[in-house]
Amino acid sequence: MSNPAKPNTERLLKQSHNNMPMGVADNYRYWGEDNTVFVKSSKGCTITDADDQTFVDFRLAYGPIILGYRDSRVDQAVIEVITERGTMSGFSTDLDSEVVELVKSMCPNIEKMRFANSGTEAVLGAVRTARGFTGRNKIVVVEGGFHGLYDEMMWKSDVDNWDSQSAQPPEIAAFGVGIPEASREHLETVPLNDFAAIDEVFTRVGHDIAAIIIEPILGNCGSIASTPEYMQTLRSMCDSNGSLLIMDEVKTGFRVAKGGVQELYGIKADLTTYAKAMGNGYAVAAFGGRADVMDIISFNAKGVTHGGTYTANMIALSAAKATLTILNETDAYGTINNAGAAIQQVLSRVFTKHGIAHKFAGPDAMFGIHFGEAVPTNYRDWKETDSALYTEFAMNLIKHGVMLEPDSREPWFICEAHKDVDLAWLEAVADQSMAEAIAA
Ligand code: PMP
Which residues are listed as membrane-spanning (predicted)? Predict the structure, then answer.
C-alpha cells in the first residue's frame, strides 16, 4: 500500500492479510494493495471509508440497496422482530406466508415460493426444481450472465481472452480451479439475442433441456437487455420442447419494477429467482413460480429436497416484508427512475463535452455505460466497447468521491436516497474524472 492519505485502510489491509486469503472476505473485494476499500459506515446513498472519505455510492453492494443504507423503516421492523420475537427458531412463522403473499401481489407470475439466503442458493433451488419437474438434465445459460458461486454455474464464456475477429466462439472457462470438469457436462451456452444459436441448441438436445436460465437484462454484463422478441422466442421454444424458462431476477427483481423484467416485458417465467433488492441489504432470497412446478418440492420419493437452517429466518423476512411493503405502497420506483434518468443526463452531457461516443443500456434503476457508437447486444459485442477508458474514468470518480465498480460490466445502481444527489457536484466530478482519463 502506498497511499499516505489512507493510513487506517493501510493498517486494516495489512492486518487482514494475516487473517484472510487476499486480505478480504470475498475475492471481488480485493481491488489491489492501493485501492481495496474498508467501509466504516453507510447512510442513504453514501458510504464512508475507514479514513473518513465519504462516497456517493452507485455500487450499492452489487445491488441490494434499493431504498438507501440504514433505512429506518426497514431497520425498525428488524429491531422489533429481534427484540420481541427472536431471530430464528427453525420452525415456521406467520411471516413466511405474509412475505410470499406480498411477493405474489407484486409479481403475478409467482404462485408458490420458497426462501433462500443468497442468490446462489436461490438459483441452485430453482435449477434443481426444474430438473426434478422435467426429469431432464441440461441447462442452457447465456454468455455474460452470472448465476452465483456454485460449481455448475461457475463456468463462463471467456470473452476477455477471446479474439473477436476469430470465427470460433469464446472458450468456456471455469472461475478458477476446484471446479470439477463434470459440473459443466449438462451446460449449454448461447450468446444473448442470437436466435440461430438457441434454435441450434434446441434442435440438437431439446429433448433433454430441463431449463433455460437467463438474466433477462444482463445485470452482470453492463445491463445489456434481451430484446422482447428474443425473450418471447425463448418462451415459445421452452413451451414447444417441454423445457422450463427460469428468469434470474436476483439483480433486476424488485428493482426495475414491482414485477421485475417480467412486468416490463409482459413475459412469464416458469420459475424466478430473487435476492438483493428484496431486503434492502438484509440477506434474503427466494425462488418461485408455477404452483405445479414448485409442488415437486416434497419428501416423497419423486420429490425435490429443499431447506436450510437459516432459511426464512425472522431477520430476513421482517426486512423483506418492510422493504417490499414500501416498494409496493409508495412511489419509490418513480423516485428511483427519475434520479437514474437525471444522473444519466448529467453523465451524457459530460461524455458529449469530451467527444466520447457513449450509450446507456438497461433501465434507469440499473443502467450500464458503454463507450462506443452502439449499445452492445450481447457479451461478445461488449468487447468492442472502450472498457479500458471506462475503468480509467471510474477509478478517477472513486478518487473524487463517487463509488462504483471500475468495470463496465457492472451497472450503476440507483436507490431511493439518490434523489438527494447534488447533480451539479456530480457533473463537475465526472467532468474532471473524464478529463483526467483522457489525459492519462
Ligand atoms: N444471480 C445473479 C443475477 C447475480 O447477479 C448474483 C450475484 N451478483 C447471483 C445470482 C448470486 O447471488 P449471491 O451473491 O447472493 O449468492
Answer: none
- For 27-92, give the DSSP string: GGG---TTT---EEEEEBTEEEETTS-EEEESSGGGTT-SS-BT-HHHHHHHHHHHHHT-S--SS-
Task: Work out which ligand 1 atom sits closest to the CA atom of 248.
Answer: 3
pTM strictly above 0.80: yes
Does one domain contain both 280 and 382?
no
What is the distance, to the nearest Å, from the Cα of residue 264 to the centroid of all Cα atoms in its chain? 17
CA–CA dist 385, 409 (Å, integer): 11
- Mutational test site, ligand 1, from 251, 261, 379, max ligand atoms within 8 Å of CB: 251
How much distance in Å is there from the Cα of 56 to the middle of ligand 1?
23
Q: 346 and 307 in one domain?
A: no
Please name the residue whose Cα sits nearest to atom 12 of ligand 1: 119
Residue 223 near ligand 1, beta carbon < 6 Å: no
Residues forming a β-bridge with 412: 367
Whether 144 lines ligand 1, by a CB cut-off of 6 Å, is: no
- Which residue's CA lies nearest to atom 13 of ligand 1? 119
Q: Say if residue 192 is in the same domain as residue 276.
A: yes
Strands (E), 92-137: 112-116
pLDDT digits (tens, 9 = 90+) for 344-399: 999 999 999 999 999 999 999 999 999 999 999 999 999 999 999 999 999 999 99
- The yes/no answer to whether this complex scores an ipTM above 0.95 is yes
Residues spanned by the domain of 10: 1-36
What is the domain-level CATH number for residue 368? Answer: 3.90.1150.10
User: What radius of gyration, in Å, describes the C-alpha atoms of the chain?
Assistant: 22
- As a whole number of angstroms, the distance between CA 165 and CA 425 comes to 41
- From 214, 220, 250, the mutation candidate for ligand 1 (largest count of ligand atoms within 8 A of CB) is 250
Q: How far is the CA of 375 from the centre of ligand 1 (A)?
A: 24
* Positive or negative torsion for Cα 39, 18, 399, 389: negative
For residue 52, give the nearest of 63, 37, 64 by alpha carbon.
Answer: 37
Same domain, 247 and 341: no
Do 157 and 167 lie in one domain? The reply is: yes
Q: Which residue has the cell 492479510?
A: 17
Contact 285, 121 (CB under 8 A): yes
